[in-house]
Design brief:
This protein is α/β, with parallel strands linked by helices. Helices cover 41% and strands 17% of the residues. Strands 3-2-1-4-5-6 form a six-stranded parallel β-sheet, sandwiched between helices.
């Protein structure tokens, strides 16, 4: 039995709910939105397909209906517009999170919280400061979507299953994100070693242009928004994957956004490196050995986020 509450019944929230039902990872979903009719309609639409899925309850409600939730997912906020950066969303969406946090924390004090709204790292930080929920039970989606985009593109380039790709995006979910290539492996081969021997043993038609790959990953969301107006399928699947990893309880390393307390010389900010999550939330941060350049880039990403946080009223 698992109960998940989703706050925000827009395209992202509704797609998460529908994917959860089709994947069979939840037995009860509560959709909450300021537009109550929208939440009710989405819940009914999803529930009416339940005949062909695993049994589940899908309904709309209000904050008190979140009581007993295992996980609460927050997707509320103004969507990013074409040409707009995630960080430009901050003032409006920060106000929404400040309004939501005490209400939902009162209703579901024992739940594990996943922040999806953008800019996710800043809003995860604000939720930490305003909700009263213990740190280990607050997770931002961070760069899980960026990591999925990276792994999918590398899988295409190397003509291999994404499950054989171990490469990650670190830092901010935004312009200062980066790929620690020292941690990247293709079918158990360090990608840096494959690059050095590419001429003698080509495994791909890719030219190992790391900067171009980072730019591709960093701008993928903006490309989708330009073409179709919004992104919601990939982030919804990413959130469902996080929930599945949590509910299995086995412990899975994910690039979620969590609060730092001196790791890599970074403190009092939320951003992404690999952390192990399970039913209790964040179990620990994986102590990966990064190069000096990678540590510097991670610190730069933290500084960029701190600059934004200083402009926000907590």
């Amino acid at each position: 039995m698992s109960k998940i509450t989703i706050i925000g019944a827009g395209s992202v929230g509704a797609t998460i709910a529908n994917d959860m039902v089709t994947m069979g990872i939840v037995t009860e979903i509560v959709l909450i939105d300021v537009k109550k009719e929208k939440a009710r309609g989405e819940a009914l639409d999803i529930y009416q397909g339940i005949t062909y899925c695993s049994p589940a309850i899908v309904r709309s409600g209000d904050y008190p209906d979140a009581a007993g939730s295992d996980i609460v997912i927050i997707t509320s906020g103004i969507a990013r517009k074409p040409g707009q950066t995630r960080l430009e969303l901050i003032q409006t969406n920060a106000g929404i999170i400040r309004d939501i946090a005490p209400k939902i924390a009162k209703a579901a004090p024992e739940a594990l919280y996943i922040i999806v709204s953008n800019p996710v790292d800043v809003l995860t930080y604000i939720f930490h400061k305003t909700s009263g929920i213990p740190e280990k039970r607050i997770i931002g989606t961070g760069t899980t979507l960026d990591t999925a985009r990276l792994q999918a593109e590398l899988a295409r380039r190397f003509r291999i299953s994404p499950k054989n790709i171990h490469a990650y995006v670190y830092g901010e979910h935004g312009d200062s994100s980066f790929i620690p290539w020292s941690l990247a492996y293709i079918a158990n081969n360090p990608i840096n070693e494959l690059k050095e021997t590419a001429a003698e043993n080509p495994l791909t038609d890719w030219d190992y242009d790391y900067d171009a790959m980072e730019e591709f990953v960093r701008t993928s969301g903006a490309r989708v928004i330009q073409d179709k107006g919004a992104t919601f399928y990939a982030i919804a699947i990413s959130v469902c994957h996080i929930c599945k990893c949590i509910l299995t309880g086995a412990g899975t390393a994910l690039t979620v956004s969590t609060m730092f307390h001196g790791e890599y010389g970074i403190d009092d900010v939320c951003l992404s490196t690999l952390s192990v999550v399970d039913r209790g939330g964040v179990r620990y941060r994986v102590p990966n050995r990064l190069t000096e350049e990678e540590v510097a880039r991670l610190r730069h990403s933290a500084d960029c986020l701190k600059d934004v946080i200083r402009q926000v009223k907590l």
